[in-house]
Specification:
The chain is an alpha+beta fold. The chain has four helices and twelve strands; from the N terminus they run αββββαββββαββββα. Among the domains are: 39-103, 2-Layer Sandwich (wza like fold), CATH 3.30.1950; 108-189, Outer membrane lipoprotein wza domain like (Outer membrane lipoprotein wza fold like). It has helices at residues 2-30, 77-88, 129-135, 197-217, and strands spanning 39-44, 52-55, 61-64, 68-71, 97-103, 108-113, 119-122, 127-128, 147-151, 157-161, 180-181, 186-189.
């Protein structure tokens, strides 16, 4: 009997822990904080004129009917829904507002080649090349690299002289956009061409063997 009571006690504790975990997970899901770049669906029941799909702008705001420019980054979807509901009350009797996050912002660039930490890096705005290189830990040996390449998302390849990045006064305004990385772009740092000593040694061996055979047959 005592064993049964102990077993029931442990089962009860387990149930409590599982319920607590579910509550925590639900709370975390509800408290997602909106950030710039997120795409939202704002729905007002029975009022399509106030139902809108928007993306949060780089300054953290959205444009919403009647209410105009609203700062929303930093709010949870529920908080934003409450703000919109409160502001719509003069126009809509008992507004029912629901805010969904339809796309979490995750724009990124790729940095590959002769850098210390190649990989994929998330960005929130166009990035200049020096900043991108710093994200990847810098070039392994900058003295050995003369050119970089940008592979645009649309397939365009741009070759850039590395020294031009530090000579900004020589860069004309029309070229400035080419020195920015946008979502989906890939920055390529070509590795330096090391001299192939093994190939040279093999070549020398072939020549030596050929001369030896030639002298033998002579």
């Amino acid at each position: 009997m005592k064993k049964i009571i102990v077993l029931l006690f442990y089962i009860l504790i387990l149930i409590i822990l599982l319920n607590a975990q579910e509550i925590t997970i639900s709370k975390e899901a509800e408290e997602y904080i909106l950030k710039r770049g997120d795409r939202l669906s704002i729905e007002v029941m029975d009022h399509p004129e106030f139902t809108k799909k928007v993306r949060i702008l780089p300054d953290g705001t959205i444009e919403y009917p009647i209410l105009g420019n609203m700062l929303v980054a930093g709010l949870s979807p529920k908080q934003l829904g409450d703000v919109i509901k409160h502001n719509l009350e003069p126009y809509v009797p008992i507004p029912v507002v629901t805010v969904y996050v339809t796309e979490i912002y995750g724009e990124s660039i790729n940095i590959i080649g002769y850098v210390n930490s190649p990989g994929t890096y998330q960005i929130y705005e166009p990035l200049d090349i020096p900043t991108a290189l710093s994200k990847a830990g810098g070039i392994q040996n900058i003295r050995k690299v003369k050119y970089l390449k940008i592979l645009r998302k649309n397939g365009e390849v741009i070759k850039i002289k590395l020294s031009s990045l530090w000579e900004t006064e020589k860069i004309i305004v029309s070229e400035e956009s080419k020195l920015k990385l946008y979502a989906g772009d890939t920055l390529i740092v070509p590795p330096p061409k090391e001299f192939n000593w093994s190939m040279l040694n093999a070549f020398i061996s072939i020549i030596a063997l050929s001369l030896s055979i030639y002298n033998t047959l002579k």
